[in-house]
Amino acid sequence: MSETDTRTTEETETARRPGRERGRDDGKFGRYGGQYVPEALMPAIEELTDAYERYVLDNEDGFVDEFRERLADFGGRPTPLQRADRLSERYDREIYLKREDLLHGGAHKLNNALGQVLLAKYMGKERIIAETGAGQHGTATAMAAAHLDMPCTVYMGERDINRQRPNVFRMKLNGAEVKSVTTGRGTLKEAISETMRDWAATVEDTHYVIGSIVGPHPFPVMVRDFHAVISEEARAQLRDRVGRLPTDVVACAGGGSNTMGTFTEFVDDDGVALHAVEAGGSTLEVDEETGVAPNSASLYTGDEGVLHGARTKLLQDSDGQIMESHSVSSGLDYAGVGPELAYLVDAGRVTPVAVDDDAALEGFHRLSQTEGIIPALETAHAFGFLEEHHEELGDRVVVNVSGRGDKDLDAAIEETDKRDVEGAPDMSMFTGGI
After folding, report:
1. 128 and 255 co-located in one domain
2. Given its phi and psi angles, is residue 47 left (phi above 0), alpha (psi -120 to 50 degrees) or beta?
3. Active-site residue set
């Protein structure tokens, strides 16, 4: 058997671990998941399901081989697993950082975006559409579309456009059209709804690159499988380095793409605790009168319902209406979560925890100063959790650095100036200029 054949066989065996099979046959994770979509979208969903099974699961026409090659050559995989020396000393346990911020584009989002845009080409599609919140998924999709010569349109909430101007400019630099969504609060939920409307009208020649493990089947399993390379690498890297698995794996959780990418290869390792860190916002209380939940902690506080094509845990009022969410980080500002994460929380395999805006901002500054890594505000929630809960963790902890903080510097300046944030630099020089 050739070296190439050996590599392909090993990848296939990895992809067939029991935890990876969940949801593939029927799109169900216990009572969560499914396909709650208009009849007009069912032909596209069925076509995508067939393509996912043939190309992604069965490697028809060498799709998986090409995907892996492009992840390496264009994306820069594998990303490092770095021992965080100063954090390890601070918390008196081994802290390892999975550096997805070093992936091309500065976040984990390229794994899925590249996989789906490549899949669209194999399917013969002629156009790409996507939604984005923090802009990282939109940026990754725009980069992948430019790389693979596909026209691309990205829908983004008006509020998020104002919070994430650098990423909007990056999308435009890559040739994507960015469409502002002004309905509702102008965040990720509205952007997804608008993108689905576009897809319903253009299904014959258009593929919708959903950016998280949300939506109707097969999106939750497909996005998970494209991102599982994160945990594949982290698991192998730590075993090679110290000969053992981690005691704990930590990842921030919005829709859940980063979370399931980081967790998937550890789900079957019962001795590894999995911690999903959600945005606690300003409070976990809900203001039903205004229809606003000042947080995005749907795993921690949500109730069962249907949103964007799947049954999952959602932020809802007492009448079952979807609440508007909030987070200091655009990428966590979503009223729902992926159905597989909801299932794993109910099953007791994943522990959800909410970290508020202040703790996330402190984590943002702490990682920047202790390790020289400026994280995305999404990622900063994981480091807020680490500060608050490290005594509850074991002696080998892997934290996924899901993205870098370049996109968040304007927001970090504004939010830090409003608060007394421990460890923050002197903000007086910005007076009058914020």
Report:
1. no
2. alpha
3. 109, 131, 402
